[in-house]
Amino acid sequence: MDLNKHTALQLLKMLDAGQVSAAEILDDVLKRIDAVENKVKAFASIVDRRTLRQKISPSKKGSLRNIPIALKDNLCETGFPTTCSSKILKGFNPPYNATVVEKLVDEGAIFIGKANMDEFAFGSSCETSCYGPTKNPWDLTRIPGGSSGGSAASVAADETIMALGSDTGGSIRQPAALCGVVGLKPTYGRVSRYGLIAFASSLDQIGPITKDVADSALLLTAIAGYDEKDSTSVDIPVPDYCRFLNADIGGLKAGVPKEYFIEGLDKEVEEAIRNAINIFKKMGVKIIDINLPHTKYAVSTYYIIGPAEASSNLARFDGVQYGHRSADAKNIIDMYMNTRSEGFGDEAKRRLMLGTYVLSSGYYDAYYLKALKVRTKIKEDFDKAFSECDFILTPTSPTAAFKIGEKADDPLSMYLSDVYTISANLAGIPAMSIPCGFTQKDLPVGLQILAKAFSEDVIFKAAHAFEINTDFHKRKPAL
Amino acid sequence: MPITKSDVKYIANLARLKLTEKETEYFTGQLSNIIGYVDQLKELDTANIEPTTHAMPIQNVFREDTVKPSLKVEDALKNAPAKEDSLFKVPRIIDGLK
Description:
Chain A contains 15 helices and 11 strands. With about 475 residues, chain A is of the alpha/beta class.
């Protein structure tokens, strides 16, 4: 029946009508994993089948009862390894659950495995994983995007029904765009980060990667909310985001920033985005030109602040309490040095050194403090823009999926592929990527929709209206 | 400003990373490129701009200083590379002691 190809909302309806059983859904997902996982390599680890079968139950309640979900490999789940796809955390078995994991357990979800990712979420291609790269289901010679590449690829390949990712500079939206699925980075503070292994604490946010916009609303409703274990989570009531589906968006104003249509934007991607903007126009949305003048500084700002926070957060991986410890250590400093040198990959080392440099005495003001000030300017750009429009439309990524290995030796060009997604993290605002077209080589293109802080409702209205007027999200890769 | 090999050696040590000569060379080139790129921020006048450390206005969150249930010692030690009794075990910290 290929139940694995359905969305969660479709399956829940079928379950309630008695048309399918939870066991049949799980079986179809597992069959699909058997058929394609050796090609896609979306998972860092998969839960054994007996455990999975024991977890399903017809008596489950909750908004995600018996729905298979993949968790990014940086979300702590007791009883299963959580490794950030890094050698330094191989075998780590968290002693507690992330808050999102607890919430999903309460809603009856089934966790099928840990999705592959760039090591510690450092990357835009999934190539820095210690397990090797995940492949793009649309073209196995190409990257799926990153860092939540495994989450996006597993959803696109129908190896799961939904997935969670995390987004620090585009790590949910860019892989969602490149794999042709829906990815949402919620407002900073909307979802608790407790149990998300930290990369950059002022930028990180957990969010859904799903087959369509309706499932995204369903999953965000399940994971959002204040959590006393994360003092940066915000105590604003969580609406049922599904309420905002099927809305009339005629009369809303969409801003298009000219700073996003610049050199480096692929012609075919631009064409798909222009076409998507026209579709909004036809739905009665007023399209206006806006300015986000500090856009060109976003990549620099991010690659100072992100690594700075990471260099501090990752100091904890020292071989003392968990993870890898070097066998070769005469004293404690030796143990730190050898453990970290053996355990971290090149991209992690690069970012840790970059972060250490910009925080070090003599450079702090010139780089770190400067970047914090530019962050203020970037945030102000959005404040001003949202006084003129309800939401903003941009490309998610300047190009479709690139070839595996193409940028592996050129970190700067890899960083520049995040140019359109980074600003939302710096400003803390929500942003979603939805499928909006394909290139001639049949590679998906993503449209980014941004809104004011805590205005996920506006994003769901706009994205869902687009989705019901198009069928880009219905196309499946020929695997 | 270009980053030199000695800069890389210095920050690698601060970050507790041991690099081979070849790695030092490799990272020096890459980090120089990246720092060269982010130097573009210097063209922007930010003299009277307040820094943003967090996108949302957040305040300290206080709670009563009361004991609450927390991780059990055996759970906290479960992943330890080396342990003894209820402690994490590490190599010698102070040199020269016998």
